């Protein structure tokens, strides 16, 4: 055996066998690689951005999707590399088209010719319109139910008061509302300011695809305590002092503003003020406290003025009046004499 292995011919035969084995092994591997490289592969690349070329200074284009799905089919290695790198672009060129509606085909570039390309969608309906910019007044708004029951929305204002809206001519012509909505917590009692986004809506309250400058405005919300102006009525109490005749009581202030919950204040018709007649002793202007009706929180004036017209009856006048009413001695009638009772002595005398 050792002698056989020492033979040069044996060694040459073994070397030749190993060489043939290696050759066929490498060839099989290369053939397998070539088949893999040449086999077809289909890949779907989703949400590829669409570029649009047109005169964006003077025109507005609608109908172009923001993204499309791209399906590629071809050699596996090329397809996989294209999906991984994504160095291609999808575009539509509208520079040669006039204002109006058009059906255009989406195009692509920088994709290998060995790949079959399918775009979804492949064609789109576009509308080319004139670009218009117009100034609109901003109407601030807020849900009134956020305000506490004893308060009300006094007013709202936006700063700036107007914005510039840019869009297609048809969109600008369909604008019905330009609003800035503010929010807040339930039970608002104080005025406040808030930054709010501007919304542009059509008559059906659909949001329009336009550009707004500025996009936000500062809204001032003025909230005030609810009040109602009511007439004052006099409610007399007590009794005038002895010797005092009150001819007339006249209100100096005829109305008062009453504050409180709307549900309570709205059912009141007047503000009664109690006037203690025992405190009126002469003709002058008096002040009396205003008592708040139940449910009211405050009143515009704590006291109300009453002008009194009084007549005083002096003691001397009383005495003179009594004397006039009492008869004098001269006015006393003589005692009547009965003739039947007269005697002779009475006659002699």
The total count of strands amounts to 22
Elements, N to C (H/E)? HHEEEHEEEEEEEEHEEEEEEEHEEEEHH
Mean pLDDT metric = 85
Category by helix and strand content: alpha+beta
Please summarize the sheet with the most strands: 5 strands, mixed
Distance between the termini: 219 Å
* Strand proportion: over 45%
Can you give the helix content as a percent range?
A: 10-25%
- Principal-axis shape equals elongated
Low-confidence stretches: 328-349
Radius of gyration: 54 Å
Biggest sheet strand order reads 6-4-1-3-7
Q: What is the count of helical runs?
A: 7
Assembly state (oligomeric): single chain
Task: Tell me what you see in this structure.
The strands form 5 sheets. The protein has a 5-stranded mixed β-sheet. It has helices spanning 2-5, 8-38, 76-85, 169-173, 262-265, 315-325, 344-348, and strands at 40-53, 59-62, 67-75, 89-93, 100-105, 107-109, 116-120, 123-137, 139-141, 151-159, 162-168, 177-181, 192-201, 211-213, 216-225, 227-237, 244-251, 255-260, 271-276, 285-289, 296-299, 303-312. It has 349 residues and is of the alpha+beta class. It has 7 helices and 22 strands.
Please describe the structure with a list of short key phrases separated by commas or semicolons.
single chain, 349 residues, alpha+beta, five-stranded mixed beta sheet, five-stranded antiparallel beta sheet, 45% strand, elongated, disordered C terminus
Brief overview:
The protein has 349 residues and is an alpha+beta fold.
Topology:
Layout lengths: L1 H4 L2 H31 L1 E14 L5 E4 L4 E9 H10 L3 E5 L6 E6 L1 E3 L6 E5 L2 E15 L1 E3 L9 E9 L2 E7 H5 L3 E5 L10 E10 L9 E3 L2 E10 L1 E11 L6 E8 L3 E6 L1 H4 L5 E6 L8 E5 L6 E4 L3 E10 L2 H11 L18 H5 L1
Parallel strand pairs: 1-4, 9-12, 16-19
Antiparallel strand pairs: 1-3, 2-8, 3-7, 4-6, 5-8, 8-11, 10-15, 11-14, 12-13, 13-15, 16-18, 17-22, 18-21, 20-22
């Amino acid at each position: 055996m050792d002698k056989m292995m020492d033979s040069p011919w044996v060694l040459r035969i073994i070397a030749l066998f190993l060489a043939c084995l290696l050759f066929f092994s490498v060839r099989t591997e290369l053939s397998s690689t070539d088949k893999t490289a040449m086999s077809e592969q289909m890949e779907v690349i989703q949400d590829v951005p669409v570029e649009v070329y047109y005169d964006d200074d003077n025109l507005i284009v609608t109908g172009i999707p923001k993204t499309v799905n791209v399906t590629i089919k071809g050699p596996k290695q090329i397809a996989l590399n294209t999906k991984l790198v994504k160095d291609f672009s999808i575009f539509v060129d509208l520079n040669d088209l006039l204002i109006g509606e058009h059906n255009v085909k989406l195009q692509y570039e920088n994709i290998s010719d060995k790949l079959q390309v399918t775009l979804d969608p492949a064609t789109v309906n576009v509308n080319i319109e004139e670009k218009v910019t117009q100034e609109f007044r901003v109407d601030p708004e807020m849900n009134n139910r956020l305000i506490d029951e004893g308060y009300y929305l006094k007013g709202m204002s936006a700063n700036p008061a107007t914005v510039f809206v840019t869009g297609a001519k048809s969109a600008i012509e369909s604008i019905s509302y330009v609003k800035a909505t503010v929010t807040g917590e339930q039970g608002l009692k104080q005025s406040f300011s808030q930054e709010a986004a501007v919304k542009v809506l059509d008559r059906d309250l659909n949001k329009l695809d336009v550009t707004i400058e500025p996009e936000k405005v500062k809204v001032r919300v003025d909230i005030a305590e609810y009040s109602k102006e009511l007439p004052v009525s006099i409610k007399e109490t007590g009794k005038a002092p002895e010797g005092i005749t009150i001819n007339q009581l006249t209100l100096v202030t005829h109305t008062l503003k009453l504050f409180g919950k709307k549900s309570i204040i709205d059912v009141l018709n007047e503000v009664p003020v109690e006037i203690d007649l025992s405190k009126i002793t002469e003709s002058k202007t008096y002040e009396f406290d205003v008592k708040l009706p139940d449910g009211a929180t405050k009143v515009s004036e704590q006291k109300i003025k009453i002008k009194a017209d009084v007549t005083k009856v002096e003691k001397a006048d009383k005495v003179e009046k009594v004397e006039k009413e009492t008869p004098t001695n001269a006015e006393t009638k003589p005692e009547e004499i009965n003739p039947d009772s007269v005697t002779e002595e009475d006659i002699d005398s």
